[in-house]
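Case study 2.
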Amino acid sequence: MTTIKFNSIGIIHSPFKDLEGMPIQPIGARGIKGKINLNGEYKSGLKDLEGFSHIILIYHLHLSKDHKLEVKPFLDTQKRGVFATRAPKRPNPIGMSVVRLNKIESSTIFISNVDIVDGTPLLDIKPYIPHFDTLEDDKIKIGWFEDKYHEAVDKKSDRRFIDD
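Prediction:
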């Protein structure tokens, strides 16, 4: 096994102080504002980012203490393989969200559509580019989400990944 080390480049702030009751995906977090305090040494890396309306945040799911290979996701009642879900109990606790970029002031990034707990360590930022990140292919399949994805708009997290 290869050892990999990542360092946080900043901290994500949101109104969510607890995992319970948070939106489970950015689609359910429309309008919820947050900010990122980027470590000062990375400030020059923000050059040209304001030209993008959305960014991809890659972050450490720091409250996830272990992993499970089968989980019962928020949008289902049966266990699924963790790699067929977006559940936080992953072998490598890495999260990803596409959020709206509102503005940048110095090394503070103001965002919205935030579905991330306050104090989450940020690992990386990438621009969201629909031409690269959305497949224009009518053969896309979304597995067991096919009849459930619309529920994500109103679904909030519960304690299933906190207490188990």
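Strands lie at 10-13, 33-38, 54-60, 70-71, 80-81, 94-105, 108-112, 120-127.
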